[in-house]
Amino acid sequence: MATTACFIIVSRNDIPIYEAEVGVAAKREDAAQLHQFILHAALDVVQDLAWTTSAMYLKSVDRFNELVVSVYVTAGHILLDGNYFIVEIN
């Protein structure tokens, strides 16, 4: 089974600052837009969970069809000037 993953780093203002897609699956024409849509749909859940748990890895935060959103929250989210999420969509 061919798989692919999209890694996105999101800034404090919910702005994607880095995006990389890795894997062997054929790339869809609308993959970038689909990943952005899934990312923004999951951000509210991520922001709520980030403040209610001490875990840095949030597994299966959201799902969209066969895609699963997992998130790494950096320790900097407690600072006023550093709030980054590393999002994995696969």
TrEMBL record:
<dbReference type="InterPro" id="IPR011012">
    <property type="entry name" value="Longin-like_dom_sf"/>
</dbReference>
<dbReference type="InterPro" id="IPR006722">
    <property type="entry name" value="Sedlin"/>
</dbReference>
<protein>
    <submittedName>
        <fullName>Putative trafficking protein particle complex subunit 2</fullName>
    </submittedName>
</protein>
<dbReference type="GO" id="GO:0005737">
    <property type="term" value="C:cytoplasm"/>
</dbReference>
<dbReference type="GO" id="GO:0006888">
    <property type="term" value="P:endoplasmic reticulum to Golgi vesicle-mediated transport"/>
</dbReference>
<dbReference type="Pfam" id="PF04628">
    <property type="entry name" value="Sedlin_N"/>
</dbReference>
